[in-house]
Specification:
single chain, Rossmann fold, globular
């Protein structure tokens, strides 16, 4: 009988669809990359999700984030993503966590329940904790490296962290993971040299902040505010989703 996943079933079979429907994927970071991960996974038939982010939709997100519209500005990204996922598949089970993942609250997350972890957060501290927690529970994890200040979506690749090159974030992560004894980690990264953002005070978040009132974390907390586009983070997110689906149906 035809259903919303029939075209996917033609490629991965009924058994693959069944595996995806029973899988729980935790997506940490529901931004430019993480939003497209969620979009592709729910359309692929993944049945259970944990969405983790404390950020709210900002006007400056409209250029690249799939959940960002004029109507969603000021709302939690997790809750907007939940509504969108329910519109796609009313039967999907989604747990939202409106918080920023840190070593201090890592015990609040049931890693043993996850079939896959997607790291789409921005900070090295959070990434390292996510990876170490996932590895400790033998949960597959894939990590997004730097997608900011890039223009060529064709330069993204899936690789082990120790085989990456040309990505400053990946370089830092390689060093820190090696210190912690992590021997491998699947990542999506771009070897395109980073573009230095132009100094335009009229387009500067530092002088013209439009973050929603009450936002706990603002982009101005960063030393450098990266430029981005509609197509670069989307490609990274879709590549991650493809790897997650492939790995889940192979289990």
């Amino acid at each position: 009988m035809l259903n919303q996943f029939s075209r996917t079933e033609l490629l991965i079979g009924a058994e693959g669809i069944e595996k995806l429907s029973k899988s729980r994927v935790a997506v940490f970071g529901i931004g430019g990359v993480g939003g497209y991960v969620c979009e592709a996974l729910v359309r692929s038939g993944v049945g259970h999700f944990d969405l983790v982010d404390d950020d709210k939709v900002c006007l400056t997100n409209l250029n690249r984030q799939i959940i960002a519209t004029r109507k969603t500005i000021g709302r939690y990204k997790t809750e907007v993503m939940l509504e969108r996922m329910k519109d796609i598949n009313p039967d999907v089970d989604v747990r939202v966590h409106n918080c920023f993942f840190l070593p201090e609250n890592a015990d609040d997350f049931p890693f043993e329940e996850y079939d896959y972890v997607v790291d789409a957060v921005d900070t090295v501290t959070a990434k390292l904790e996510l990876i170490m927690r996932s590895k400790a529970k033998n949960v597959p994890v894939i990590s997004a490296m730097g997608a900011g200040n890039k223009l060529d979506p064709g330069r993204f690749k899936i690789a082990d962290i120790y085989k990456t090159s040309g990505c400053p974030l990946a370089r830092v992560m390689r060093y820190e993971l090696k210190r912690r004894g992590v021997k491998k980690l699947k990542v999506v990264y771009s070897d395109e040299p980073q573009i230095r953002p132009r100094e335009d005070m009229g387009a500067s978040c530092r002088t013209n902040c439009v973050c929603p009132p009450g936002a706990q974390h603002k982009c101005t907390e960063r030393r450098d505010i990266p430029g981005s586009t509609a197509f670069v983070p989307a490609v990274a997110g879709l590549m991650i989703a493809g790897e997650v689906v492939k790995d889940l149906i192979a289990k």
